[in-house]
Amino acid sequence: MNRTTRKVVIVGGGTAGWITANVVACECRHGDCEVVVVESPDIPTIGVGEGTWPSMRTTLRRVGLAEDEFIRNTDASFKQGTRFFGWSGRLDRDEYCHPFSLPVEYASLNPARFWLAARAKTPFAELVTPQAAIMQRGLAPKQITTPPYAFAFNYAYHLDAAKFAALLHRQAMAAGVAHSIGNVEQIEARADGDIAAVVLDTGERVQGDLFVDCTGQRALLLGGHFGVPLVSVKQHLFNDTAIAVQVPYPSPDGPIASATHATAQPAGWIWDIGLQGRRGVGYVHSSAHVDGDAALATLEGYLADTSPGIDVAALTFRTIPFEPGYRTTFWSRNCVAVGLSAGFVEPLEASALALIEQSAAMIAEQLPRDRRIMEVTAKRFNAKMEHHWQRIVEFLKLHYVTSVREDEYWRDNRNPGSCPDGLRDKLTVWEQQPPWHDDAPRLDELFPSASYQYVLYGMGFRAKYDPGTAAGDSERERADRVFQDVRAKSEQALRLLPDNRSLLCSIVQREQEREGHG
After folding, report:
1. 379 is known as an active-site residue
2. Alpha-carbon distance 63 to 182, whole Å?
3. Helix (H, G, I), strand (E, B) or coil at 190
4. Residue 394 half-sphere exposure, CB side, CA atoms within 13 Å?
5. Nearest to 348 by CA among 401, 386, 393, 295
6. 226: helix, coil or strand?
7. Which of 57, 149, 455, 490 has its CA at 20 to 30 Å from residue 295's CA atom?
8. Phi, psi (5° rounding) for residue 38?
């Protein structure tokens, strides 16, 4: 039968479930499709990383959340990219940044050609965008007078994942999303093999036409019921464990970093993000290269160095194992996986939340009106998500393959056999020409080609052949003008922009005053 899609059942809450519920509900405002979230009362939000990609601003606007309300209710702060410490292993400069803003005039000027040809000593990111200097100084991406979601420099957020899920929950309820609480005890199948309903331990039977699996790494529907396996990427990305901890600030008015800090360690790396009221810190590592006790000791040592006055022994540490990989299929029959159900790799570059947003948006925008259309939508969804996962694996691996660190973990990461074929091809081409638009040709790429440049040249990669500047003197002169403009704009921004905490405090105060007058 060619059934009409009248009910979308999202199994699982958390960030994945509630983002999907809100985005799909926005496309179903005419009342022709019901959305319900089935949520277990026993499963907490994992919240590894707690970082987002700039696309989150579009998602928040789409579901009708005001930025001030979001910032106040999720303990959020502004994130302008990632600063990497100790990754390259090069003695001259073992620090670089990946800002969210593209290089100035990047659409028509490839700055890497001129930077490489001139053998510039200025770090690449600092030469091509003012945002590098802004991140290093811990400044905000805009002023208090800048409208919500607008910016002087492109930005995302750091946030408290549990508080974010709660805010999304309230927003979804206001949008008419139904909510059922209970654990899935049984999955009922139709005669044709589709899922007919999920039966909860409360006795409730929730039937639907499209089921979205947001049950986390268990993947109860797509993995458990349909048996769709996970494609392991451990041969490329070795990390399979995270130790996470929440760290208070020594004083409530201390500075808040405006970037994720990622510090390399002998068997992985430590993330450090600043929220309004605390820091979120964690050690992502390979259990094949370090045991749990040694990994915990490494994290405790980092905290002792970076958290003066904090009693590290009094903190609560969570160990979170994960299998790095993604499903062979993401949409099978009338079931589609979003979030951890679809796959997970280390939380580097906030790829997990970005994929949740992409998945939710495609489901909502192309919500199949009937079962026949669903077959074609599923094929398109699977092709798109497979592309994204392959690019994510390649991009994350790029952060490791050009390092010259001599720890066993880092040497293993340089082994050519651990490098994805697609990335190996790119690195070969980049020996003679820098990345540009052809390296990220799709409009919906998670990572633009500029991101490859920031990481590649931040890690110390250099072309084997002189890239030259075949365009001649006029284009070289244009590049020089652009670089001079970057310096001038950097100096201006450093004078005019507030620090991250100052802007956040002003926004929270403004939201409190609005609520007081409401």
Report:
1. no
2. 26
3. coil
4. 22
5. 393
6. coil
7. 455
8. -105, 120
Residues 54-68: b if buried by 16+ CB within 10 A, e if exposed: bbbbebbebbebebb
H or E, element range at 22 = helix 14-27
- Residue 410 CB partners (closer than 8 Å, separation 6+): 89, 264, 266, 400, 403
> Please, are residues 259 and 272 in contact by the beta-carbon 8 Å criterion?
no
Q: What's the one-letter identity of residue 224?
A: G
- State how far the Cα of 271 lies from the Cα of 22, in Å rounded to an integer: 29
Length of the chain: 518
Percent of the chain with pLDDT over 90: 88
2: its two tokens: 């060619």
Whether the Cβ atoms of residue 344 and residue 217 lie closer than 8 Å to each other:
yes
pLDDT at 23 over 80: yes
Q: What is the pLDDT of residue 247?
A: 95
Closest CA to 402 of 346, 456, 453: 456
Q: What is the chain's Cα-based Rg?
A: 23
**Please, are residues 80 and 200 in contact by the beta-carbon 8 Å criterion?**
no
Q: Which pair of tokens denotes residue 250?
A: 């020594």
* Contact (Cβ atoms closer than 8 angstroms) between residue 248 and residue 275: no
Structural contact between residues 266 and 290, judged by C-beta atoms closer than 8 angstroms: yes
| CB half-sphere exposure, 211, CA atoms < 13 A | 28
Q: Identify residue 314 by its one-letter amino acid code.
A: A
Handedness of CA 485, 487, 488, 494 (dihedral sign): positive
**Alpha helix (H) ranges present in 261-345?**
292-306
Residue entry with tokens 């690449």: 124
User: At which residue do the structure tokens 């500075």 appear?
Assistant: 255
Nearest alpha carbon to residue 87 among 448, 469, 461? 461
Residue 343's φ and ψ, nearest 5 degrees, are 160, 170
Residue in the block written with tokens 């079931």 = 335
Q: Which of 7, 79, 379, 489 is catalytic?
A: 79
List, in sequence order, every residue forming a beta bridge with 262; answer none if it has no partner: 84, 271
Residues 292-296: contacts with CB within 8 Å, 24+ apart?
292/241, 292/243, 292/319, 295/241, 295/243, 295/267, 295/268, 296/243
pLDDT at 233 over 70: yes
DSSP designation for 222: I
**What average pLDDT score do residues 159-163 get?**
94
pLDDT band at 514 (very low <50, low <70, confident <90, very high): confident
Angle at which helices 449-458 and 371-401 cross, to 10°: 20
Amino acid identity for residue 202 in this structure? T
Helix, strand, or coil (residue 124):
helix
